[in-house]
Structure formats: C-alpha cells, structure tokens
Amino acid sequence: MKNKRKVKNKNEKVGRPPGEISYIGDSSYEGFNLVQRRYDPERFTEDTLGESEQLQPGEGYKVNWIEFSGFKNIKKIKELAEYFNIHPMLLEDVVNTYHLPKYEEGDDYIAVILKSYVSGSNDKLSDSNSICIILKAGTVIDLHESPHSLLDPKIERIKQAKGKARVKDADYLFYVLLDAYIDTYYLMFDDIQNRILDLEDELLAGVYTNRIEDIHNIQNELTGFRKFLLPLKEAISILIKEESDLIHEENLVYFNDLKDHLNQLVEYYFSYTDMIKSLIDLNNSNINNNINQVMKVLTIIATIFIPLTFIAGIYGMNFENMPELKYEYGYPLIMAVMVVLGVSMFIYMKIKKWF
C-alpha cells in the first residue's frame, strides 16, 4: 500500500501574540553557527564565534559580513537581532520558514526573505533552506535556517581578491548573496526538466505503465516552487523601485540583472507547467491505447468463437430427428470443421491487419 502524503501544519502562528519569535519549520539542525568576515582591498579576516558579544566592530573595513545558521536556536538569533537593532517583526517572519519571500525596509536596513534549493547535508535539490539577507551601512547579515556549502566558492573568491567584491561596498555583497541563492532556482528547474524529459521519453516509447503519480509529484513540486518564486520576483522589483540609499546607483544594474533572471525563471515555470499538461495527455493516451489493445484481442477472440458457439449450440439441441448425431464420425468431423473455421478466421483477420 502506498503511503499517503502527510499535510504539514503550517498554522502554528494562530493564537500567538504579534511579534512573538518562535521557530516554525521542520529543520533537523539544532545548533547554530556564527561567522564574521571583514574585508577591504588589502585585508580579509574570518572568525567563527560563539556569542554575538564576540563580534568585532566593522569600522576600518569596507565590508562587515555576518553569517548565522540555525533558526531553531531562538536565543542566539534574538541576541544577534538585538545587537544589530533588527525589528522583532522582521525576525518573526525570518524564523517562520513557511513565510513567503518579501522585501522589507527598516529604519537603517533593508532585507529580503527568500528560499534556496541546495541543502548543506546531502545537496538534495528537493530540500529548501530559508534565507534572510539584511543590508545595513557597511554590513551584510546573512541568516539561514541550516548550514550549507553553497557560498564556499564565493568566499574563496573574495579571500583570493578575485572579482569585484573586495573593492565594492556592502551593497555589492548583498547582490552577490542574492544572486547565489537565486541561481539555485536554475538547478531546481534543471532537475525538474530532466525528470519531465525522462517521463516523456518513456511514454513516447509506448510503455503502458500508468505514470500519473510521478507526473503529479512533479506538478506538486512546481506548484510549491511557484509559491516562493513569484513573490521573490515581486520583492526584487520593489527593492529596485524603492531606490534605497543603502544601494549605490551604479550597482542598481546588478539588481536589475537579478530581476531579469527571475523573469526567465517565471517563464521556465509556465513552460514546464505546459509540459506537465502534455505529459498527462500523453499518459492518458497510452492508457487508452493499452485498453484498446486489450479490447481488440478480446473482440478477436469473441469473434472467432461466435460461429464455433453457434455450431456447438445447434448440436447441443435435444431433437431426436438429427441424423448427424448417429453418424459414427460425427464428433471428430464437427471438431475438425470448428478448428478449420477458427484458424481460417484468424488468418483472414491477420491478412486484413486487424491486429
């Protein structure tokens, strides 16, 4: 028996007071990780810390980059939010992993909540990671639900002073992080595309196995994916439209590039949705063809046996004046006639290519 899909309770906020910070999600990561990176064109430092009080001032460096993992550890994330004066209402949305992506502007910061689709434990694309990136003057705070290795190549490039990050301000790092997380959406779509094409090849090959469950699984993933994709597109559009003082005008071109990426991803979504509809039609067509083949075989068998049944019916009647019944070779003769008749009808149907 197949397991039924379990519906997760996503209404844990009901009845709670506004602003209450409580983790809502299903991550298995219980710990926390706090890393501070500070850099400018000449220097780069990286420190793993145990407490927010151990954070070093960012003055003297071009960029102060704070990376925090572990939304389940409410105490630590609240301490970090208080240290940087992040509003509790934003933090409440951050630790609610079912919250839709959004852009928010505070007194001295801007923030974007979104999802990434590469986990840190086993790199399964089906696993999502809730993210919040906060930009303050000279500081970027990168909050994620659980640790991941997605940013390792970016960190190494910055360490090696490759690219523009070391000579750019914090708003450029804000863009770099957004771009890294949005790029995982392409990986998600590539994975879905490969699964769609594999199903399409199998169905076009005439395999009669009903694959509607696999098709609906992909369709459900796409539907869940859309829930986070379309609001993220709107969030980036608002970010660009607001023209925050924290983002330099010359760097707006990078955020417009993010918007272009999201427009492309939205087109991918609608394209794959159409492909799913085609797969459903193709699967139904295969099932109908299979049924037709079965019905054709049964019809041929029934057609062959109609005259044989007619003959058997005639000689099964209990009339006394039926001279053939007393014929010594009557039984083998009738059996021979029935065999010849059945084989002849089969050959005729084969010549006519009825099957």
Commentary on this structure:
This protein is of the alpha+beta class. Helix content is 50%, strand content 13%. It has a seven-stranded mixed sheet with strand order 2-1-3-7-6-5-4, sandwiched between helices. A hairpin with a 4-residue loop joins strand 1 (33-39) and strand 2 (44-49). The radius of gyration is 34 Å and the shape is rod-shaped. The chain starts with 32 loop residues before the first strand and ends with a helix.
Task: Walk me through the topology.
Elements: E1 33-39, E2 44-49, E3 63-69, H1 74-83, H2 88-94, E4 102-105, E5 109-116, E6 129-136, E7 139-144, H3 152-159, H4 170-204, H5 212-242, H6 252-314, H7 330-351
Parallel strand pairs: 3-7
Antiparallel strand pairs: 1-2, 1-3, 4-5, 5-6, 6-7
Helix pairs in contact: 4-5, 4-6, 5-6, 6-7
First CA to last CA: what distance? 36 Å
Total E-strand runs: 7
- Mean pLDDT comes to 87
Fraction in helix? 40-55%
Rg, alpha carbons: 34 Å
Walk across the major sheet and give the strand order: 2-1-3-7-6-5-4
Order of helices and strands: EEEHHEEEEHHHHH
Content-based structural category: alpha+beta
Query: In what range is the share of β-strand residues?
Result: 5-15%
Low-pLDDT stretches: 119-125
Oligomeric status: single chain
Shape annotation: rod-shaped
Q: In this structure, how is the largest beta sheet organized?
A: 7 strands, mixed
What's the tally of helices? Answer: 7
